[in-house]
Specification:
The structure is a homodimer. By secondary structure, chain A is of the alpha/beta class. Chain A is built from 12 helices and 11 strands.
Chain lengths: 314, 314
């Protein structure tokens, strides 16, 4: 990290970039670092591909967001971004900078940089930015703390995902001591549901059926249902878990008619069924407890075939 | 706390009690402390009012649970219990013990004890047991860590409730370093839904309507719907939040026909509406953003009256 500290201290004009479809860790890391750079007297700009999503528009630091006018930067710092394609139209800002730094926690990172710091043990890039700010002897202000708390809490699913570490909690303890309104942040990033998502959930619950003594839950959404509610891609997220979270369920199957007559199937298991193996029978794949496949057969045939395979391994 | 350490070190036969309807903090604190007492060579028994709920039956330490045979104890330690009525049929075990200790984080605690330790800043009694175990110089084993993690995570709603403190995270960091399977614990205590609860959610979603440009969500469950799914009391928990969590909603009203023709109303607000004030119009009460009332009027009249009052303050 010393290398990175030196590069930062040497630069005056700094651009901060993060990946397209910026999430809580991407934006929280970027704004948190921008405040720290400002404290050091740097001229700092954050460049984003898209507008800030509504669920994250409470983040302080949006005054650092600039429109790119083609100028070259002394230093470009790229956060939470595993490869150049994830910089979208902003790749040139990175390529043309005199010096570059990449800070990321993705194992698959393929970026080139003068200062490259990859730490796959970090639950969030926000954790790494926290450690960098400490190394730079900069005080963690409330604005910085709100950003880094949001980064960590979103990337760990609220300290629930297996990437959460003792270090995540130690850093969070320090951030909370800066009077972070964490209950409000949680509400904004986790508890707010769009109406289209609610309508899809309602339909998915109507379509839910149980099989094999309550060990298997099946649900689906048809193309027309999805069209009628003007659904966004992330509205489907988690619908397969409605069945998986039911008491007594081992396997949950969720089918979504992605385009007319083509179903995207999601399979989840709780304890022992290898759903990657099941998905492979239908030319799909994935992990032992979370897998997927596609089917061009009709809904009932698809369900029947998958249930027949599940029955063999229950 | 020294007083409490001395009382513990002096006793050989120890009974541990917690409140009726024991939850994650009650059971986690009890079993965590029981392991520590065993480490000190004490003869320790935990007495419970009811069987351990399914969602918590993974907790280690259930071998300490005993049936009460009328004997008197040298020391009875009561955890997370604000008054004697919450000891149910086990009140005598506490009353008849030679020495008593009470450890609790409820501000309303009215217990008498030789060693009384109330700390309302603690997010969970499990935090206090952690500090006691440290004061006793006992190693936090994996079994203890699983119990205390469960105590803290359940009483803070997964570090989401406003009672969460930096201390909660610091203690959790230490507990996680003991190889606690936290992702599995989270799944058991938060993500498992009973089938009856799912059926109520499905019905509540079917009954959901939006009013005043999406600012108000209304839903209800009728007596016969509730009866037909053999619902438990806690199956209703959170149904009012389905409406409250919808993007753009300020007030959520949820009505449940508790007995024939009597509706129990729950009101929640997000930002500015004072629902305690609204509830008081219907002889109810509560907090500014969470309140309740009863209505013996029919469903449609009740909804119309409440909506008319909400409209005035939107």
């Amino acid at each position: 990290m010393e290398n990175i500290v030196d590069i930062i201290l040497d630069a005056e004009q700094i651009a901060i970039l993060t990946h397209t479809s910026a999430d809580g860790d991407a934006l929280g890391s970027s704004f948190g670092l921008a405040f720290a750079m400002e404290y050091l007297g740097k001229n700092v700009s954050v460049f984003l591909e898209e507008p800030i999503p509504k669920s994250l528009d409470f983040l302080p630091g949006q005054q650092f967001v600039s429109e790119y006018k083609g100028n070259k930067f002394e230093l470009c710092i790229c956060l939470d971004t595993s490869d150049m394609t994830r910089l979208g139209k902003r790749a040139d800002i990175y390529s043309c900078a005199q010096k570059t730094i990449t800070i990321d926690h993705h194992t698959t990172n393929t970026m080139q940089a003068d200062g490259l710091w990859i730490d796959q043990r970090a639950s969030a890039t926000g954790e790494m930015v926290y450690n960098l700010i400490k190394a730079l002897n900069i005080e963690v202000t409330r604005d910085i703390a709100i950003n880094l708390y949001t980064a960590i809490v979103t990337d760990t699913g609220g300290f629930r995902y297996s990437n959460t570490t003792p270090e995540s909690h130690i850093i969070t303890a320090d951030l909370l001591s800066k009077d972070v309104p964490f209950a409000e942040i949680i509400k904004r990033v986790f508890d707010t549901v769009s109406y289209s998502k609610l309508l899809l959930l309602r339909k998915a619950l109507q379509n839910l059926t149980m099989h094999f003594n309550g060990k298997v839950a099946v649900s689906y959404l048809l193309y027309d249902d999805i069209k009628s509610v003007d659904a966004q891609t992330d509205d489907f997220e988690g619908l397969v878990n409605v069945g998986r979270n039911l008491e007594g369920v081992e396997v949950s199957l969720f089918l979504r008619e992605e385009t007319k007559h083509i179903f995207k199937g999601s399979l989840r298991a709780n304890e022992y069924v290898d759903v990657a193996q099941l998905a492979s029978i239908f030319s799909g794949g994935g992990h032992k407890r979370a897998a997927g496949f596609s089917s061009e057969d009709n809904l009932q045939n698809t369900i029947d075939k998958v249930l027949a395979e599940i029955e063999k391994v229950l």
